[in-house]
Design a protein that fits this description.
Order of helices and strands of chain A: HHHHEEEEEEEEEEEEEEEEEEHE
Number of strands of chain A: 19
Number of strands of chain B: 24
Structural class of chain A: alpha+beta
Radius of gyration of chain B: 40 Å
CATH superfamily of the largest domain in chain B: Macroglobulin (MG2) domain
Mean pLDDT of chain B: 86
Mean pLDDT of chain A: 88
CATH class of the largest domain in chain B: Mainly Beta
Oligomer: heterodimer
CATH topology of the largest domain in chain B: Immunoglobulin-like
Strand content of chain B: over 45%
Number of helices of chain A: 5
Structural class of chain B: mainly beta
Distance between the termini of chain B: 152 Å
Distance between the termini of chain A: 82 Å
Largest interface: A-B, 39 and 37 residues
Strand order of the largest sheet of chain A: 1-2-3-4
Shape of chain B: rod-shaped
Number of domains of chain B: 3
Radius of gyration of chain A: 27 Å
CATH class of the largest domain in chain A: Alpha Beta
Order of helices and strands of chain B: HEEEEEEEEEEEEEEEEEEEEEEEE
Low-confidence stretches of chain A: none
CATH topology of the largest domain in chain A: Nuclear Transport Factor 2, Chain: A
Strand content of chain A: 35-45%
Largest sheet of chain B: 6 strands, mixed
């Protein structure tokens, strides 16, 4: 009896410590329960990915000892200054496609929050029942960090610099004319409660152009009532003779509300480089794993410089050669020299059915280059 | 007796008034030419008596000074450097005399030369606009007609070619002409001359669109190397480096495109080879030849 109070206090302390530990583990995302289902195993793995706790995430894999840790991190966190390195896993959608007693196939849609907006990455993961606890664990596809053989690539970098005369310049002295660009096509359509203006622009000059395409909608009274720009649905740097598509979206508008579209291409001479050259290989229309129509292919960086972020712009034409859609997609992997990097640009199903011809171009953003 | 006194008083008052009037300062009047040239000194003669205030009010200058009516007032060249309407005033107490005069621009002493565009494709008619504005040495627009000659100088000494326009008279200080671009690419100097004065601007003449764009393909292992012949316009000028040439390969794997810039006169790229393929080449809106590559890898 004389130890009753002491024992009660000790019991109370132990109880509080246990509650605290459980709470802290929960907050840290530590699974204290067995991974009873394939879905649960994937969710636990993604929780570790979201926390960027790579050792913990790798430890949850069924083939942890076969997966190279640097390749695993490169796969999920990116590298070489790619868009993925500026991304965070925001949320994920997990669905079981197939399940047997000891293995399952789970589809995961990873929604990444990136510097240029939200990007999705859909993967089918194999989940297996392994270990003493007979838990479900993700079987991660074995990959390698891309490695390039040591080599010297001779590249003649071609570059334009612009020397302006400054604010103190005398009136009447010669200045640099802005590059001459021409809007070669324009098509206005109505789609999903929006008016969409799209077409193509060509640089007819001999120097690079910095381009912004703007559209103003004019109503029946001749009044301009809406203005929009093409934002990133255009290649802003346009080299001589290069053609870029553009797309301008006017949400919550119908085509019958406007009488005319006034186009305006704002152009300036800017310093630019003709390199690196990016080839767009094996372009094809196909259906992806979730049943959407995509324009897929591979980007090949033909220079010796790593391209950090690539931006793909696809122009779709109908059988009359008219531009009927412009799609774009950021590639969240860096383009290493001469290493193909897959891309897939989503196309609306109705557009995909009418596409007769397409043209794909790639913009690039390279760290330290202008 | 009373009427005699009144008569004398009247005469006295009348004489006093006359003396007072004769002793008062008369208001000054100013005399100067109606038109003077900018930057030329002006002498303003005045009449009247007594001390007065002189005012000069112009578009670029305002001055005030005291003077003795009847003297000649000198206006310095700096005070009438700006062309336009001027007003001079001479004030004596409550009274002011005002005279207007006009300062005309002096002879042309400076050329402002505007040439557009700074880059022009070869072989274009009336493609270059040259406008010159004639100013005097005080930056006034020289309105009197002056003879300006325009010249285009292409090529390097001693093989330069010079094309001169007939003299053109300025109208309201402006003379202009339109020039055709030459047949060869390179810099062309556009010169405007007014007497001994001249101003120069440089226009870059560049090749026009590619003509007869032709590419060849060479099979190297599992790659195919594509290269254009030197890309020239229809006058034989090299299309500038950096101009994009698009190579397109169509095979069983799909369509592959590379936008390759011209470097040292040719555009070059390589692509993987996966069996029979049709290869085409284009630059801007100009299409080139088509190549069919068959056979196995």
């Amino acid at each position: 009896m004389k130890y009753g109070l002491a024992l009660t206090l000790l019991f109370g302390i132990l109880l509080l410590v246990a509650i605290g530990w459980l709470q802290s583990a929960k907050a840290a995302g530590v699974s204290l329960r067995a991974q009873n289902t394939p879905e649960q195993a994937v969710q636990n793995l993604l929780r570790s990915v979201r926390e960027k706790n790579w050792p913990k995430a790798q430890a949850q894999l069924a083939n942890a000892n076969q997966v190279d840790s640097s390749a695993f991190v490169y796969d999920l966190a990116g590298g070489d200054g790619s868009l993925r390195t500026y991304s965070t896993l925001e949320d994920s959608e997990v669905s079981v496609l197939h399940q047997d007693a000891d293995d399952a196939l789970v589809r995961v849609k990873l929604n990444w929050s990136t510097a240029v907006g939200s990007l999705s990455d859909t993967r089918d993961l194999k989940v297996v029942r392994r270990g003493k606890e007979n838990d479900w664990k993700v079987f991660w596809p074995v990959s390698q960090v891309p490695k390039l053989p040591a080599q010297v690539m001779a590249v003649n970098y071609l570059r334009w610099d612009v020397v302006n005369r400054g604010p103190e310049g005398e009136w009447g002295t010669a200045s640099i004319d802005p590059p001459k660009v021409r809007i070669i096509s324009m098509n206005a359509i109505e789609r999903n409660d929006s008016v969409i203006v799209m077409g193509e622009v060509v640089n007819e000059d001999t120097i690079p152009a910095y381009l912004n395409v703007n559209a103003a909608l004019v109503d029946a009274n001749g009044v301009e009532f809406r203005h929009e720009g093409s934002f990133d649905k255009v290649s802003h740097i346009l080299l001589p003779s290069q053609v870029t598509p553009y797309l301008i979206d006017f949400p919550k508008l119908q085509l019958n509300q406007l009488k005319q579209v006034r186009m305006d291409a704002n152009v300036a001479a800017v310093p630019a480089s003709a390199d690196p050259v990016i080839g767009v290989m094996n372009q094809r229309l196909e259906t992806n794993t979730v049943g959407n129509k995509v324009l897929a292919g591979e980007l090949v960086n033909q220079s010796g410089q790593t391209v950090n972020i690539a931006h793909v712009l696809a122009t779709c034409y109908d059988n009359n050669g008219k531009v009927i859609w412009v799609s774009d997609e950021y590639v969240d992997r860096a383009l290493l020299p001469t290493t193909p990097q897959p891309f897939a640009v989503d196309l609306p199903a109705d557009v995909a059915a009418r596409v007769q011809r397409f043209r794909v171009m790639a913009n690039q953003y390279t760290r330290g280059a202008s | 007796m009373r009427s005699l006194f009144c008569t004398f008083l009247s005469i006295f008052l009348l004489c006093s008034a006359f003396v007072a009037m004769s002793q008062a300062e008369t208001p000054p009047a100013l005399h100067l030419p109606a038109i003077v040239s900018a930057g030329e000194a002006v002498a303003v003669s005045s009449s009247g008596t007594g001390s007065a205030m002189f005012y000069l009010i112009g578009p670029g200058h305002v001055a005030k000074r005291q003077f003795q009516a009847g003297d000649t007032i000198q206006i310095s060249p700096d005070a009438v450097a700006t062309a336009g309407n001027y007003q001079v005033m001479a004030c004596n107490g409550q009274e002011c005399a005002t005279t207007n005069f006009y300062v005309t621009p002096n002879r042309g002493a400076e050329l402002v030369f505007l040439v557009h565009p700074s880059r022009v494709p070869v072989g274009r008619v009336d493609a270059i606009s040259a406008v010159t504005v004639v100013m005097d040495r005080f930056h006034n627009l020289a309105l009197q007609p002056e003879s300006v000659t325009f010249r285009a100088i292409a090529g390097a000494i001693p093989k330069e070619t010079v094309v001169s326009s007939p003299p053109r008279m300025t109208r309201n200080g402006v003379a202009w002409t339109r020039l055709n671009s030459g047949a060869k690419d390179g810099a062309v100097v556009i010169d405007a001359a007014l007497g001994q004065l001249s101003e120069r601007r440089v226009v870059q003449q560049v090749a026009a669109e590619p003509c007869k764009l032709h590419a060849s393909a060479e099979h190297k292992g599992d790659r195919v190397v594509l290269q254009t012949e030197p890309v020239r316009d229809c006058r034989g000028n090299s299309v500038p480096d950096g101009t994009i040439v698009t190579f397109t390969k169509l095979d069983k794997l799909g369509r592959s495109t590379v936008d390759a810039p011209i470097k040292k006169g040719v555009a070059r790229t390589d692509m993987g080879f996966a069996g029979p393929a049709t290869i085409s080449v284009a630059s801007g809106v100009v299409a080139g030849n088509e190549i069919y590559m068959g056979g196995s890898r």
